[in-house]
Amino acid sequence: MLHSRILLFLFFTLNMFSNGPIAKTDTLSRKAILKLTAEATDNLSAFKFEQSLATARVALRYAINRNDDYLVAKSYNTIAATFEALSEVDKAIFYYKKGLAYADKSSNDTIKSSLNNNIGNIYCFELNKLDEGVNYYKKALEYSTKIDDTRGIYITKMNIAWAYFYRGNFEKGRPYLDFINKHQSDYGGKGTIVALNMLNGMYYTNKLELDKADSFFKNAIRLGNEGNEKSDLSYAHQEYANLLKKKGDYKKAYENLVIYNSIRKSLEDSDKVKRANIVGVNLELDEYKRKVDTIENEISLQYLSLQKSRVIVVLFIIALTVVLLLLYSVYKNYSFKKKINADLIIANEKLFIAKEKAEEASYLKSQFVSTISHELRTPLYGVVGITNMLLDEHKELADSPHLSSLKFSARYLLSLVNDVLQINKIEENRIVLESLTFNMSDEINLIKNSLSFIAKSHDNHINVVIDPSIPEYLIGDKLRFSQIIINMVSNALKFTNNGEVTIKADLVKIENKAHFIEFNIQDNGVGIAEEDQEKIFDKFVQIGRKEIDYQGTGLGLSIVKRLLELFNSTISLKSKIGEGTTFTFTIAFDHDPAKSIELINKIQVDLTSSEIFKILVVDDNKINQLITKKIIEKNNYKCIVVDSGIDALEILETETFDIILMDINMPLMNGFETTIRLRQKGIVTPVIALTAFDKDEIIEEALSAGINDIIIKPFEPILLFKTINQLLYEENETELV
So which domain of life are we looking at (predicted)? Predict the structure, then answer.
């Protein structure tokens, strides 16, 4: 702030002491100056060079005094054109460009076009710089076109044609000649007729159409003698002489050159030139005088400033001191920032390395979890399957505590695997909610039945209370919803003995199609202490667990909380030690009756069909082969088993199947590659992947390979047959259509 105040003080102080006298200048009206410039142009047209320069000099002085950029440019244009006529090329270019500098500051496009055109003439005809000259011509055309100056366009295009012909480039000049021939009567006027005929003569001379060229040259000479275009007449005689040389008429060619020299001599009368040069010198003196006046004014201002030098010096010292202090401060800040930046660069490099390591560790963790889940699910499929086979084939063992324990242990281990895999997917944001039509009542009752073994082991009873106003069919992610209910109810059952667990659903609000349903999972178990209630949703937390206490990983409620976040919902609880716990959350499901009816009609499949389907099982694991074959044959389907993808392709060449059950993780040729090859062979049989991989991990690759559906091992037999019937029903329906 101090620095800014000093600068403002300096500014006002200097202004206070710098008031000097203002010189008075002669003035003249704009109309009068325009009249002077017009008079100078007329004198130039009449080859009165001395008068033209003198008049333009006066007009320039008044135009400068008025600060009128257009009038200054116009005056310089006339002065430069006069020097051009006097063959003072350097001076002409100097004044043309000076005029152009003022013209560019004005808004008048006519003067801009005129100056660019005239500079183009100098470069093309005097300096032999055709490309630079044509560039100036094109700028002149842009300005003339912008203001629709047809006369200016015509004159510029004539100059371009003349420039190209002058340099012997007749093909480039031809389009411009065609234009001026076409528009002579509209835009040209009498002042250009001599030049037009001469240009046609030059063109046809180059084409060796000598008689036609001769006619144009004679017309040019006749019209030049009748009018005042003496300069164009002289050039017509010069070019006509070139034609006569080609025809071999050297006498006439000589006569025309004599006439050319005579006309040029009369135009460039030495006395006129001398007088004009004197005026030109005076004009240059004016330029120098203006510079001297400017310098004197500057000296006068400096003298006034020096009178106040003491004040200025003091203020300057103060300002310099402040600036030095600021510079020192900036330097210190810069040094500090440089050091900080160096530290930040090192820290960023370390963070980048740490980030790469973390990403690599995360990838390895995901890969490890996926591999472990696959490796665990595969033998679990065997354990669950063989247990079911024993119970089916040996009814006398139905009440065997050993088999029940075996089945319970297998299901428990599968639950652990699913929990670990689920929390891993949530942490990596790999879960996207789906929109499927489902019956909420059926889903909850199915969960109730599937958890009956846990309920029995703790002597508990599960109650289901569903609000009748809830629509029969809702739209949402039924899989994630089921995971939430399963985790909540199984958690309640494990912490309740000889009691009840109630699943309650109430419709609390409807907004458009969204139906907000409040769920209460209530038990009368051990309860949760108030100080522990915020911890239970953290991973791996098990409140009050002892060595022989409740089973589980401590992931269930953590998974519930994160899945509810995907539904834009939260969970709350009320609990007292020894009285039980109630968990409450609300989920919004859509309800679309028309869509639900359409979907229900499509999935009405008769699972009791007596038709015998032929199924091919492709699996390299002998135990899996045995279990899958027993499940299929138990449902009266015909089953053939092969050990590899190669064997599957061979048998499909000779036999036809209704469904193919394909394992994914096989040696030599996996399930994806096998499916791709059979699709390439034109085999359209539906393929169901039976795999221990998580569905979300393989769904994209499975669909791209041509697999129709995926079932994760271990699975319930009813799910397998439901999927088979749905695929066969869809296939038959397509054939009917």
Answer: Bacteria
Q: State mean pLDDT over 345-366.
A: 74
Q: What is the pTM of this model?
A: 0.40
What letter would DSSP give residue 148? Answer: T
Tell me the C-alpha distance between 92 and 77, whole Å: 9
Residue 669 pLDDT > 80? yes
268-271: list long-range contacts, CB under 8 Å, 24+ apart.
268/86, 268/87
- Would you say 496 and 523 are in contact if contact means Cβ atoms under 8 Å apart? yes
Q: Are strands 659-662 and 614-618 parallel, antiparallel or unpaired?
A: parallel
Residue entry with tokens 């006498």: 251
Domains and CATH numbers, the chain: 433-596 (3.30.565.10), 614-736 (3.40.50.2300)
Residue 214: CA count within 13 A, CB half-sphere: 11
**Can you give 393-444 as a three-state secondary structure string?**
HCHHHCCCHHHHHHHHHHHHHHHHHHHHHHHHHHHCCCCCCCCEEEEHHHHH
Q: Which tokens sit at 474?
A: 């809702």
In tens, the pLDDT along 194-248 reads 888 999 989 998 988 888 989 998 898 898 888 877 888 888 888 888 888 888 8
Reported as a single tens digit per residue, the pLDDT across 16-74 is: 333 433 334 467 888 888 888 888 888 887 778 888 888 888 888 888 888 888 999 98
Residue 19 CA to residue 4 CA, distance in Å, equals: 24
Contacts of residue 489, Cβ cutoff 8 Å, sequence gap at least 6 = 447, 448, 451, 462, 501, 503, 521
β-pairing, 500-511 vs 473-476, is unpaired
In the structure, what pLDDT confidence band is assigned to residue 617 with cuts at 50, 70 and 90?
very high
**Residue burial 208-218, b: 16+ Cβ < 10 Å; e: rest:** eeeeebbebbe
Instruction: Please indicate whether residue 176 or residue 697 has the higher confidence score (pLDDT).
Output: 176
Q: Spell out the SS3 assignment of 555-590.
A: CHHHHHHHHHHHCCCCEEEEEECCCEEEEEEEEEEE
- Number of C-beta neighbours around residue 191 at 10 A: 14
User: Between 360 and 570, whose confidence is greater?
Assistant: 570
Contacts for 301-308 with beta carbons within 8 Å, 24 or more apart?
301/18, 301/20, 304/17, 304/18, 304/20, 305/14, 305/17, 305/18, 307/17, 308/14, 308/17, 308/18
Q: Which tokens in the block code for residue 575?
A: 């609990």
The string of pLDDT tens digits covering residues 529-575 is 887 777 777 654 555 544 434 444 555 677 788 888 888 888 988 88
498 C-beta neighbours (distance < 10 Å), count: 10
Place of tokens 């539906």: 686
